[in-house]
Task: inverse folding
């Protein structure tokens, strides 16, 4: 069975601080895919990144970076120099080769000005 | 319009009403999904369609009835709902069902309140 754990329920930071969101996953598949989505107050889940299990390279996109470590089954997400617009709920998700996404419970990030 | 759109954005209905939620994707995708997001619960996959054929019905009560007339449109027909059905209903689409290969794109959701 697949499972995604986001242990941090809420994180509150002051603008310009860095914030790291933890994601730990469980799967028996050797081929799997990991995702991060952002859900702002408007409700829409916004796709941020997809990673497959064979690609452990870290990725940076602007102020966002992701650290994928198969050894610890983790796919953590860091926002550098956070801004108020980063305030949202962030979801980590896992799928194998089919369409079923297993979502974590989400981490609410609040960035205060 | 771009991406995935959903109407209405907010809906309040009584338990005896019949209403429908509409989803439209402008991405040329072949697969569409309905999810339910309740407070303090993970997103729940409800229905999946691929090329207008239903491929998943995830033990959803019959008071929810999906319809996919073409690959761009998806409806969720509601009748005789219960207060616990109040939630955010999200529609999503993807290129096809190879979920790992293609990410799902979500609409803004319909916030449903059943009174």
Result:
């Amino acid at each position: 069975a697949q499972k995604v754990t986001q242990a941090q329920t809420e994180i509150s930071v002051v603008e310009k601080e860095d914030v790291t969101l933890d994601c730990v996953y469980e799967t028996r598949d050797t081929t799997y895919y990991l995702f991060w989505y952002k859900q702002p107050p408007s409700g829409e889940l916004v796709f941020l990144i997809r990673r497959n299990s064979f690609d452990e390279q870290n990725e940076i996109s602007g102020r966002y970076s992701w650290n994928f470590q198969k050894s610890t089954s983790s796919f953590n997400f860091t926002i550098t120099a956070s801004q108020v617009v980063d305030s949202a709920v962030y979801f980590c998700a896992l799928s194998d080769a089919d369409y079923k996404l297993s979502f974590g419970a989400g981490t609410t990030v609040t960035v205060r000005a | 319009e771009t991406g995935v759109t959903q109407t209405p954005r907010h809906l309040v209905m009584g338990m005896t009403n019949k209403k429908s939620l509409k989803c439209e994707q402008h991405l040329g995708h072949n697969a569409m999904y309905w999810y339910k997001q309740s407070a303090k619960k993970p997103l729940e996959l409800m229905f999946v369609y691929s090329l207008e054929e239903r491929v998943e019905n995830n033990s959803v009560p019959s008071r929810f009835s999906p319809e996919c007339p073409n690959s761009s449109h998806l409806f969720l027909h509601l009748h005789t709902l219960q207060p616990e059905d109040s939630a955010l209903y999200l529609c999503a689409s993807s290129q096809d069902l190879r979920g790992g290969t293609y990410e799902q794109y979500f609409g803004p959701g319909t916030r449903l309140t059943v009174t």
In short: The mean pLDDT of chain B is 92. Chain B has no helices and eleven strands. Chain B touches chain A through 23 residues (CB under 8 Å). The two ends of chain B are 32 Å apart (CA to CA).
